[in-house]
Every structure is written in C-alpha cells, then in structure tokens.
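Appendix B. One record, verbatim.
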Amino acid sequence: MTESTSREAWSLHPRLLADSIPIIEHDGILYRLLNDRRFIWVLVVPMHDGAEQIHRLPAALRERTRRGMDAVCDTLDELHGPDRINVAAIGNLVPQLHVHCVARFTDDPAWPGVVWGAGEREPAEPLERLARARQLAAGLASRLGRHS
C-alpha cells in the first residue's frame, strides 16, 4: 500500500462520523472524540484510503499513527490521570482503520470489563463535548508540535 492516497479520495466511515466529533487533524491523522459522556475515548484514524490494518499501512504513516497513539495516551494521562488506558484496533464492525484510546477508571461503568457493548451510550451535551474536545486538542497539539 503506498502513501499516495489523496485526501479527496479518503472519507471517514459513516459510523465513525456519526459516533464521534473532531478534535484535530495532524500530519495525515484524524483525532476524534467518541460521543459518550461515560468514557474519555479518543479515536486515531489514519487518513489513508482502504486502510484496514495498522501493519499494512505504509511505513511512514504507520509510524505517524503510532506517534499519534502515544500523544493521545500521554494527553489522557496528563489531563485525566486514569487507572489504565485501553488501546485497541479491532475493526470487526467498522473496517476502516481506527485505533481506540480509552481512559479507564476503576469506578467507570464498564470496569473491569471492556467498554464495547457496556450499556447504552450516553451522548454528552454540546458544551460538554466542546470543552472536552478543546482540552484534548490543546494537549495533542503541544505533543504533536502543531501550532494553530
């Protein structure tokens, strides 16, 4: 797989678009916040047409994706001090490559189980979503060297 995919050819899977809101875009990676107030859950999405598995990405994009995952985890650690951070790229329901980075706490509604399928999603209020996304964007921008 080459890294020649144009951004015009790439689009976010409709389910990811519906279930999350944008945080930032940086260096070919899209960062999105899952809209569920129960969890602090960030998606890392390489903007590469046809990408389904991380090990099949072009080497440079794979490395940027991994650096992005590290930046998300470091930001979650600094901002929220979770007990654990769960990181996974599953793709069984949405084949488009996206990596979940979820701050976990011993008192969260899914602990100690997984967050997938744990109860009903609780969408956040618009101002709550915006505040959370802005806080994450600032943390990510500083770690990724993005100046905007």
